[in-house]
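Hey Z.,

So I finally got round to the iron/sulfur cluster thing we talked about over coffee. Here's the setup:
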Amino acid sequence: MTAASPAIVHEVFSSLQGEGPHVGEPMTFLRFQGCALRCRWCDTPAALSHAMTTFRVESPPRSWRFNALPNPIAAEALTEILAAFPDDTIALTGGEPLEQAAFLAEWLPTCQPRRRILLETAGVMTTALTTVLPFVDIVSMDLKLPSSTGMKAYWSEHTAFIEAAVRANKEVYCKMIVTGRTTPADIASAIHLVQHTAPKVPMIIQPASPTATFADAPASAQIAAVVQQCRARLPNVRMIPQMHKQWGVL
Ligand code: SF4
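And the result:
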């Protein structure tokens, strides 16, 4: 069997999951480099391009101290790095990890010991998803509302993505980022999509957090209205903010 093509990584560290229904669980975060989208609130702008000659690894794990290593990194070397991390869950994040699906599809089945794999994704690359789904346990997919992101709508991509993940019997949840500009019409479209695709899938409403370049966080009255709008049509709705930013952890 030929070795997997190398990966372009941004960072590896251990922390508590700060988003979604698994909030507070210890995980090892493997952040991949590269994302074709440009959400207005993106809090990992340094992870968007593929041009990253080094990446950082927390060493030792949970120390908040980092070593720099060269990119790209071969599968065997990445497995060796992760062996030092004690968490039983690996969160694949980015950037968009599915941009490196060819690497993941070869590397994930070789990763020992077997750990729970949580995929954090923008939810638009369905073909790439299908190649890694057999090796993924939890799919955390964003619903990218155009009024939130400042980009085009991805309704058909999201529909195909959610269908593929549910069909594969994976744990799936949707995360909808709400900003001060998010419109009720976009929320209604997202509700309609989930209602007609996978109505039992949890809908997590995540208020956008302010960053150095983004100040348009939603007001609390707006968040409450979004929760009500969603709960009127969907059975499993929760508002969960980005807790790692409140805790001040990585
Ligand atoms: S999909 Fe994620 S990584 Fe890509 S621009 Fe949006 S927030 Fe940033």
